[in-house]
Amino acid sequence: MGRIWRFGKVEFATATAISVVLLLVVLAAGYTAPAFQRTVIESLIDLLVVVGLYIFIGNSGVVSFGHISFMAIGGYASAILTMTVQKKHVLLQLPGFLEHIQLPSLPAAVVAAGFAAFIAWLIGMAFIRLRGIALPMATFAMLMIVHVVAQNWNEVTGGRRALVGLPQFVGLWTALLGAVVALAAAAFYQQWRRGLLLRCSRENEVAAEASGIDIAKERLLAFVVSAFFVALGGVLFAHFLGTITANSFYLDLTFVTLAMLVVGGMRSLTGAFVGTAVVTIVSEVFRSIERGVDLGGFTLSAPPGLQEIGLALILLLILIFRRDGLVGDFEIGSIFFRRAKENKDS
Amino acid sequence: MILVQNAIDAISLGAIYALAALGVGLIFSIMRLINFAHGELIMGGGFTLYVLTGEPYIVMAVAAILIVTVLALAMERVAFRPLRGANPATLLIASFALSYLLQHSVLLIFGSRAMGFDFLGGLNQSIEIGSLRVPGLEIAVVVVTALLLLGLTLFFKRSAIGIQMRAAAEDFDMARLVGVRADRVIAVAFALSGMLAGFVSLYVVAQGGSVSYKMGVNMVLVAFVASVIGGVGSLPGAALGGFLLGIVSVALQAFLPEEWRPYRDAFVFLLFIAFLLWRPQGILARRADRERV
Fold first, then answer.
1. In terms of CATH architecture, what is B2-125+132-278?
2. Are A148 and B263 an interchain contact pair (Cβ–Cβ within 8 Å)?
3. What backbone torsions phi and psi does residue B159 show, to the nearest 5 degrees?
4. Rounded distance, CA B253 to CA A211, Å?
5. CB-CB neighbours of B102 under 10 Å
């Protein structure tokens, strides 16, 4: 009888190490200007979304283009749940019970992310058996559908107008909490038996199937869990900005979040963190150059658009020179256990 | 009569989709690369036309096709050759990054507003055949597409490099083992893909009358869907998928009730998902699509 429970030291050490770094960043950010704090909050929300993506894409090796639509679903669901009843009356025409309820932020966030996970489960049941290019294309179609619906369903999403004036309860600490919870969940899943089964299928589908792994079942689980956290990212995003529009959740955000995952290395949790950090820092550097750099008396400023160009160039270079991402398979937690392993070997 | 009118619209839209799908499908069949930057090839053609406004139409058209072909070759050399053999996710993100890079470079130079100018404006006038009114552009598209498809068929059936390309699409490693030169086959694939994007850009500009830095995005999305419907890796499949998608789009536009019209694209993608569930390998699947063990 094999052990059912395996305590993955490396995975938990990784999540802890990253969380400590994030905590230090948040503590330090407390002393900085509000504009910088906003950047930190945004990047923590990005990290939450990227870790959510990683739970599915990283562990299964299957790229999904559709997860940003779960972000949209989560964001809109929470926006509707937290809005005051009078406001709903003016802006939207919601079906029956939704019109009369208003939830506090935390239950609304959980219900919204849970709802997105439920949708993911429904969609996943149909999608997840697809193999090869078909599954990514199906998730891509899902992104398109959710986008078109969000843009046109005036009664529920407000259509092309943004829903404004949502309660802005997301600050540094809320965003940190979201990111840390996602990291812990990803670490847990990754060292859990079910997560290991999925990672086997990532390395070799045929061998995994031959060993009795039900690939579709494992992928579905990861798909739902990952949708939950991505949707939670959508909730925080909406309540950080205080406004939500359909156009935020489309190709650009899909590109940026996938880039964060791939640049760091989509095969490890450390990669998700490193990628998010690198992309955020690079964009910030170029954005500040765009605003103008003070060079002893005269300001040197670059034309707008440089930020995107610089980011894209650096992404391309990283992919060309390190095609498995910056860290590849490396997990930061492994450095704490290296010595113990060496001793065992000798 | 309205049915015949719709049928003509469907065929000409399908023809353009087929060209776009072929451009994407060619690269995918050989390199397993979903080239997102194909849309920026179309954009490149559009902006070449814009820069050359005032020259004779034929000069504009030839220049656009040539420049896009060169751009496609440059893309391969600079970005995709170093990445050859990388996993599909990395390739895809790289093409995404390239697309982003080109879009924002154009944004930097030309600004974000759509810019209108005249290219083949006369073709938008309709020709009356009986009680039908057919825009000249639609006739031109169908004729040009037919010629291109004929030319491509001859190229793939008769020329040595064309046959090598088909072999590479079937099984790239095997083709290399029997002496097909990878660099050459891939370069030719990119050149052809660029040429097709050039033709598509002529249509997009003639039809819309303007260029903007995002002009290629919709077309490339359509091309992905069409090439998957046809069967990834199959070139006749890509063309067929393009025509089918054109027909479905026009049919939905014509027959959807008024209040559902804004959701047309959602229906197109919903049908696409239904299709994938029914036949995930596409209509004309390659035999060796699953990796042999």
1. Orthogonal Bundle (1.10)
2. yes
3. -80, 150
4. 49
5. 22
Closest CA to A209 of A316, A139, A131: A131
Burial degree of B88 (CB within 10 A; 0-12, 13-18, 19+): middle
- A293: distance to nearest CA of chain B, Å? 19
By Cβ distance, the residue of B104, B217, B228 closest to A133 is: B228
How far from B161 is each of A123, B165, B174, B234, B238, CA to CA, in Å? 43, 6, 16, 17, 20
* pLDDT tens digits along B1-56: 778 888 888 999 999 999 999 999 999 888 888 899 999 999 999 999 999 988 88
Partner residue facing B101 (CB), from A132, A266, A309: A309
Nearest CA in chain B to A322: B83
**Distance, CA of B64 to CA of A262 (rounded, Å):** 34
3-state secondary structure of A53: helix
CB B102 within 8 A of CB B197: no
pLDDT score of B175 more than 70: yes
A302 interfaces chain B, CB cutoff of 8 Å: no
| Residue B128: strand, helix, or coil | strand
Residues A277 and A281: their CA atoms lie apart, in Å, by: 6
The domain segmentation of chain A, as residue ranges, is: 9-246
Asked whether the beta carbons of residue A312 and residue B79 sit closer than 8 angstroms, the reply is no
How far apart are alpha carbons A286 and A306 in whole angstroms?
7
- The residues in A 156-195 lying below 8 A from B, measured between CB atoms, are none
CA distance B23 to chain A (A): 17
Here the tokens at position A158 are: 């407000």
Residue B76 per-residue DSSP state: I
CB atoms within 10 A of CB A323: 19
Dihedral pair phi/psi, residue B135, rounded to 5°: -60, 140
* Residue A64 distance to chain B (closest CA, Å): 10
Contacts of A127 in chain B (CB under 8 A): 273, 277
Candidates A130, A255, A320; nearest CB to B276:
A130
Chain-centroid distance, C-alpha B45: 13
Report the 10 Å Cβ neighbour count for B278: 7
Looking at the complex, does the CB of residue B74 fall below 8 Å from at least one CB of chain A? no
Domain boundaries, chain B: 2-125+132-278
Instruction: Give the model confidence (pLDDT) of A254-270 as tens digits.
Output: 989 998 998 998 899 99
CA–CA separation, B208 vs A166, rounded Å? 39
- Supply A237's token pair: 């995003």
Q: Is the pLDDT confidence value at A158 over 70? A: yes
A93/B206 Cα distance (integer angstroms): 42
